Amino acid sequence: MNFFLTEEQKAVRRLARDFAEKEILPVVAEDDCSHRFQREIVLKMADHGFFGAAFPEKYGGSNLGFIAHAIIVEEISRAESSLRHFFNMQALTCPLTILNWGTEKQKEKYVQKLIRCELFGVNAMTEPNAGSDVASIQTTATEDGDSFVINGSKMWISNAPIMDAGVVYVKTDPRIVPKHKGISCFIVEKEMAGLTRKEIKDKLGHHCAPTGELIFVNCRVPRENLVGKLGQGFNIAMNALDYGRISVAAGAVGVAQACIDESIRYCNEREAFGKKIGEFQMNQQKIADMIAGTEAARILLYKAAFLADNKVRNTLESTIAKHVASETCVRAARFAVEIFGGYGYSEEYPVARLYRDAILYQTGEGSSNITSMIIALDGLGWKRAKVDY
Ligand SMILES: Cc1cc2nc3c(=O)[nH]c(=O)nc-3n(C[C@H](O)[C@H](O)[C@H](O)COP(=O)(O)OP(=O)(O)OC[C@H]3O[C@@H](n4cnc5c(N)ncnc54)[C@H](O)[C@@H]3O)c2cc1C
To answer: For the chain, which domains are there?
Structure first.
């Protein structure tokens, strides 16, 4: 077992941290306040190769691996959690799904353009009436000659307002039992007739990440846009979540680290009862809890990423990493707000933003209830998530 980062991984961390400090931190408060999506920052991240760490060179990636990807996400998210979404839409869910399951033609057409942000991607599973229960999606794709006709809608889709292309999960056989077997995955493009997009405004947090709905009315998609086989969509979606949870866990670790950084700074500045507030043992207990929890989450994250780097299916490990990281992040954000007292409730300091952003980690890519269920069912031996390695 080796806990040392390689020289390459350390260099990537320096590069991402430097980028975050120079390009993101100076503007994050203003952007969050004005709900501004900074396309330029995302394009610069693509220029730095941040989205291609886990991709082969053949498709424009750097082949540094999933641990490197996690390190980059952690550093960027530590500065601004809104930017975390792009590490799924431009890396671990949308293009990686095409890389893992697509035809050679699909890979050549989309993968490199997505990780370079020449195209903005989406990964659309959730619907107005089905989120956690993916098998119950109602959007259909009906076969018609050489194409499929999609009807229905997708809700809460990251990047929907700015998307160019991406993967969407639909029912191709709504009658089949068990119902997850009737799901298929297609690539859609924004120009396709019958696809409209609507922005979801006024979210609680993640103000700088565009989110929206995709509405399909008789949207015709060519058969060659089918990803994998007909009826294989549920497996593809679950496999995408194994990878997506690495990125989400890394984002949560980054937010938790930001809560630690801010709390330590404030504990050394603020005085009460003639002492620095860091001298109060109850505040020290919070700092200790945040540091220990974040380090534990980070190690679980690196383990899940290590398995992915070694091509080992990591459903249980990425779920545990995501679960612990998101719960730790929310707890750290709550402690940070408490440590800041009344100022924690003000937009004058970053902890209010961290608190609003932290909460999403308990919902996306499998809510904390769902991740608990996966872990418990594996533990009970009722539904295995772990593979032997
Ligand atoms: C900002 C944002 C961005 C998002 N981006 C995307 C995206 O890009 N693509 C995408 O497909 N989706 C996206 N989502 C959707 C997200 O993945 C879903 O919101 C999430 O999966 C939960 O689904 P739901 O909202 O339908 O909640 P529901 O499934 O209705 O769940 C409601 C509550 O019930 C609980 N629950 C449900 N089933 C069970 C169960 N069996 N046991 C115990 N508790 C249960 C849940 O934990 C939750 O607390 C995004 C959401 C947000 C807010």
So the answer is: 7-115 (1.10.540.10), 121-231 (2.40.110.10), 234-380 (1.20.140.10)
